[in-house]
Design a protein that fits this description.
Helix content is 1%, strand content 51%. It has 662 residues and is mainly β. Among the domains are: 218-352, YVTN repeat-like/Quinoprotein amine dehydrogenase (Methylamine Dehydrogenase, Chain H, 7 Propeller); 372-498, Methylamine Dehydrogenase, Chain H (7 Propeller). It is elongated. InterPro entries: Quino_amine_DH_bsu, WD40/YVTN_repeat-like_dom_sf, WD40_repeat_dom_sf, WD40_rpt. WD repeats lie at residues 23-67, 71-103.
């Protein structure tokens, strides 16, 4: 969980978010949510997570009521049901293969857990038939498919085993067909790579009706919804659209609900105070390849397929559970960052979307382009997201330039590149250099975004650029063990370096940087076992191996006469660039994600969770700790002493206190 922000924000450009509340109670991702209706008319909200616990919340006051502790391993599912004493109960299922019952008001367990005899419980569902309550759980084994276990929640006796264990089952629901209680689930066939909708008689366990094929054999979610004609239908999430299906005929009913990208992760149904049916869909990062471009909540009229409203969540992580509280006033989402976020529809639906530029979310890596007499520009990276029809798997990233003072978008470099960095030559002229995987180098005017020079190299497969500060040389590295150096002034290839470690031949470099020393600029190459320094003036090569045998990582940052290099223990080692001696070792329990040097000589580091530490490089002592309240990927010290932050959802510039070391 990120630290709270205690530094003044000078400018920022982040994903837009409608006003909301954030309930933070888990150390891992939130896996499921349930609403509990108390006999008093009040409601509680229950969240469960990968940290093995459940948390009962008072959603109105935003406070924790109780904690459910007892599972061994992640808790995957939760639902509420009526208790025999007319109170409320909560049932959870987890990776320990048990079903556990709880009093939500106290957090105390109710009776002994049900040991299902399976390795894992992935979903739970409660429903009432007449005066009797039933409970169904999706259970599975590591070496087989899933099964549905129907249980009497009063006696804890198993009533029925449903399904043959040949499919991965998910999004369990119950509906009534011709007077019978029918269980329905999405069924993924591992061998055939297909997805279908399957239905079983809840009383006998027998299959009813034919399986319904899912278009494109891909579905993210499914729920049971009432139909205008009576009976129940199914709302199925298919990438960028939601369709309604008649479970008896398998026909698609009406038109689809279309989304702006194929990142729809959750859906739920509720009735407004007026009794009108409403459908809620959630856009969040479903794919492991790219982030959602428009993370948001959308409100629909399922009868007319009209979009009634939409608001941004500002959260790039996956959110695959959604519930509606009260009389349809509040929506709650389960987030993978360990939080539950709540929005009031009346407050959120009027929030602007998607933002004034459409490039919000462009963040780390980042670089600074200096400009005379001004704050300069920030160069940020935009990861192309899942817009239907776009070539999502094409190589390269997009890069944006922002005015660091006003946070206004200057523009986007045309095309996609393996890398883009800021560079200032000996005359003080600033430019942006880009590298393509075919080896093409291009220099760009950062204000007009027009090319000012191009160079053809033979460094194909290189993914990173490191230009010499105030010089004309540039180092290229990436796939393979070589680091190539080119002179942009002459267009000539200058040198090639590869690791000569006989114990670790052909290792790719971890990182490359230029450091300014009294002898002039030197190229630093970090391999996992050692540092290599090259002096272009003399051609000399020197090396440094950590005395403690530390494995060096991808953090490599030049300071005034020294180099900061990260290791695999997420420490930062400061090495004198002249004498190759260790000056200090910086560490913190959370691990250091990035490092920078301020103009006054202080070293600043960050943690992923948003901790900002200031250090004295001479002694290695920590001078101060701050927080920025967001996940941080990169930091960059600016010439005026402020700090640019590359965030998971954009960027910001914060002002640091003026405290000198020593």
């Amino acid at each position: 969980m990120s630290m709270q922000c205690d530094l003044p924000v000078r400018s920022a450009r982040r994903l837009s978010s409608a006003p909301h509340r954030r309930l933070a109670g888990h150390d891992g991702g939130v896996t499921d949510l349930a609403v509990v209706d108390l006999p008093t008319g009040e409601q509680l909200l229950v969240s469960v997570g990968t940290d093995g616990s459940g948390v009962v919340w008072d959603p109105e006051r935003g406070r924790e009521v109780a904690r459910l502790v007892g599972h061994h391993g992640a808790v995957n599912a939760v639902c509420s049901l009526a208790a025999p004493d007319r109170g409320a109960r909560v049932v959870t299922g987890g990776d320990d293969g048990t079903l556990r019952f709880w009093d939500p008001c106290t957090g105390e367990p109710c009776g002994d857990p049900i040991r299902t005899g399976f390795d894992v419980v992935t979903e739970v569902l409660a429903w009432r038939c007449g005066t009797r309550e039933f409970l169904a759980a999706v259970v599975g084994r590591d070496d087989a498919g899933d099964t549905i276990l129907v249980v009497d929640p009063v006696s804890s006796e198993p009533l029925q085993v449903v399904g043959e264990g040949n499919h991965e089952l998910s999004h369990l629901g119950v509906l009534t067909i011709e007077g019978r209680q029918v269980l329905v689930a999405l069924a993924a066939d591992r061998e055939r790579g297909s997805v279908s909708i399957r239905l079983w008689d809840a009383g006998t366990g027998e299959t009813v009706l034919e399986p319904i094929a899912v278009p494109d054999d891909d579905a993210e979610a499914m729920i049971v919804v009432p139909l205008e004609s009576g009976g129940s239908g199914l709302a199925v999430v298919l990438d960028e659209r939601v369709i309604r299906v008649d479970p008896v005929t398998g026909d698609v009913l009406g038109g689809p609900l279309l989304h702006p990208e194929n990142q729809t992760s959750a859906v739920t149904f509720f009735r407004a105070v007026s009794g009108e049916p409403r459908l809620v869909t959630v856009l969040s990062t479903v794919s492991e390849l790219w982030d959602a471009r428009f993370p948001s909540v959308m409100l629909w009229d399922p009868r007319s397929q009209d979009l009634l409203g939409r608001f941004p969540t500002g959260h790039l992580g996956r959110m695959d559970r959604v519930v509606v509280l009260g009389d349809g006033e509040t929506v709650a989402l389960a987030c993978r960052d360990g939080s539950v976020r709540l929005w009031r529809f009346d407050e959120a639906l009027g929030h602007p979307m998607p933002g004034p530029t459409g490039r919000e979310g462009s963040g780390a890596p980042l670089d600074h382009v200096p400009e005379p007499g001004g704050a300069g520009l920030l160069l940020t990276t935009y990861h192309p997201a899942g817009v239907t029809g776009e070539d999502l798997l094409s190589s390269g990233l997009e890069y944006d330039l922002w005015d660091a003072a006003t946070a206004e978008l200057i523009g986007t470099l045309p095309g996609r590149f393996a890398d883009a960095v800021a560079h200032q030559d000996a005359s003080g002229r600033a430019a942006v250099l880009t590298l393509q995987e075919d080896g093409a180098l291009t220099s760009w005017d950062p204000r007009t975004l027009t090319p000012t020079g191009t160079w053809a190299t033979n460094t194909k497969g290189r993914w990173f650029l490191r230009p010499e500060p105030g010089g004309s040389r540039v180092a290229c590295f990436g796939a393979g063990p070589e680091v190539d150096v080119w002179d942009l002034a002459s267009g000539e290839h200058v040198a090639t370096f590869r690791d000569d470690d006989v114990d670790h031949p052909c290792l790719e470099p971890e990182a490359v940087a230029w450091v300014l020393t009294p002898q002039g600029p030197q190229l630093v190459i970090a391999h996992v076992t050692h540092l290599t320094l090259w002096d272009p003036a003399s051609g000399d090569l020197r090396s440094h191996r950590p005395e403690d045998g530390a494995a060096l990582g991808r953090q490599l940052h030049p300071g005034p006469g020294w180099v900061a290099v990260g290791d695999h223990e997420q420490r930062i080692i400061l090495v004198d660039a002249t004498f190759m001696e260790v000056l200090a070792v910086l560490s913190c329990p959370e691990g250091i994600a990035d490092v920078a040097t301020l103009p006054d000589g202080r070293v600043v580091t960050c943690t992923v969770a948003g901790g900002i530490d200031l250090w004295d490089p001479r002694s290695g002592s920590r001078l101060a700790r701050h927080g920025v309240g967001a996940e941080v990927r990169r930091i960059l010290a600016l010439p005026d002493g402020s700090l640019a932050l590359g965030l998971v959802d954009g960027w910001s510039i914060v002002t640091l206190p003026a405290t000198n070391p020593g």
